[in-house]
Design a protein that fits this description.
Shape: flat
Low-confidence stretches: none
Largest sheet: 22 strands, parallel
Structural class: alpha/beta
Number of strands: 22
Strand content: 5-15%
Number of helices: 22
Oligomer: single chain
Helix content: 25-40%
Amino acid sequence: MAKALAQEMDDLVLNGLSVLSDESAQALAKCRGDSLSLNGLTTLTAEAAKALSRYKGHYLSLDGLTELSDEVIKLLSRYEGNISLRGLISLSDETARAFARCKCGLSLDGLTTLTDGEAKALIRHKSHLSLNGLTALSYECAKFLAQHEGGYLSLDGVKTLSNEAAKAFSKHKNHHLSLNGLGTLSDEGIKALTQYEGWLELDGLTTLAEETAKALAQHKGDLYLNGVTLLSHEAAKALAQHKGNLYLNGVTLLSHEAAKALAQHKGDLCLNGVTLLSHEAAKALAQHKGGLSLEGLTSFSDEAAEALAQHKGGYLSLGGLTSVSVGTAAALSRYQGNLLSLSGLTSLVEEAVKALAHHKGTYYLSLDGLTLLSDEAAKALAQHKGSLSLNGLTSLSDGSAKALAQHKGDLSLDGLTLLSDEAAKALAQHKGTLSLNGLTSLSDGSAKALAQHKGDLSLNGLTLLSDEVAQTLALRKHSLSLYGLTTLSAKAAKTLRNNPNISL
C-alpha cells in the first residue's frame, strides 16, 4: 500500500496512520508530492526517521509526536525541507541544542513557553524557525531569538511586545520576521521595528493612523499590513513613501484619492482584497511604477481595463477575474508590462482568445485557469509573442499540440499528465523553453520526439526512466531537466550524466 501511495504526484495526507513500520517509511520517503503529512503517528523509530529524512518534498508534518529522542532528532535533521513538530509542548535545553543542529526548517508551534536557555540554544539553528505558539516573549528571549540567522522567524502568537524587545528585533539578521499576532504597538515599538531591514509582517494591525503609517513608511524592506481594512487618504499618502513591496490585502474599498496616493509608492503593490474598482481609481493605479496585484477583482468595466492597460510596472496580476468580455480582453492586450496574469479565467470565448493573443507588449501571459483548449483557440494563442503559461490544461489534443508548436516563446504545460506520441512529436517542433513537469511517464516514441526539441526542456515530473528512454534522451543537444528521478539504473544514470546538458 505504501509503495502504491508513494507514486501519487499530489500532496499525501495520511493522518489516520498511528503506526509506521520501517519498511513503509522507506516507501513513503519516495513520495513524489510536495508535502507528506503523518500527523497520526505518536512514535517514530530511528530507522523510520532515517528513511523519512530522505523525502524530497518541501514539507513533512509529524504533529502527533509529543516527544523525540536525541537520536531521532539527529536523523530527522538531515531532512532538507521544512518539518512540522507541533505536538511538542515542552523543550529541554538539551533538546533545543539538538534541534539547533538541524538543517531543515522547524515548526515548533506547540511550544507555549520558552526559557532563556532554550532560546539561546536555538540561536545556532540555521534554517526557518516557527514558534507561533508563544504568546509572550521576555526581553532576554527576544534578545537571543533576534540573533537567529536562519532566514525566517515566525512569532505570530505573540500578543504584546515590549519596547526593549522591539529594539532587540531591530537588529535581527534574518530576511523575514513575522509578528502577525501583535494587535497594537507603541509608537516607540513601531519606530524600533522599522529599523529591521527585511520582510516585516504585522498583519495583526487592523487600523492605521496617519502617524503610524508615517512611522512604518520608514521601514526598508517588504511590509505586510494585511489586517488593515480601511485606508484613509492620509495614511495612503504616508505609506507611499515606503520603499519596498507593500501588502495591503485586507483593504476592500479604495477611494480615488487613496489610489492616487499609493500610485506614488516605489515597489510592488498588492491590493488583493479590493473587490470593486472605479474607472478613476484604476486610472490612478495605472501610474504606479512597480508590480500591481488586484486579484480580488472578479470583474470590472471595459473602461477600467483600458485604464489598467496603461500600467507600465513590472507586472499586472488579475487572477480573480473569472470571465472577461471581448472588450476587456482587447483592452488588456495593450498592456506593456513584463507579465500579465489572468490565471482565474476558466474559459474564454474565441474572440477574447484572439484579442489576447494579438497583444504586443506583455512578455509573459499566464492563463493557468484554462482547463480546456480547442484547436482553434490554440491556433490563436500560438500567435502570442512571449512566454505563455497554460498549466491548467490536463489534456491536449494532437491538433492543439501542433498549433502551440508554432508559438514563439517559452511554453509551460505543467498540468499535462499524459502526452500522445503525436502530440510529443508536434511539441518537439516548438522553438523555445518547453516545460512538461506534469508528465509522470514517457513512451519510447515520445522520448525520441522530444530528444529533437531545440530549446530547454523540463521533465521534472518523471520519477523513473527505462534504459532505452534514457539512452534516447541522452542524445539531446539542449538543456534537459530531470530533477524528479528517483529510480534509475546505473547504466541509465551513467548514460545521462555523460551529457553535460542534462541535469539530474
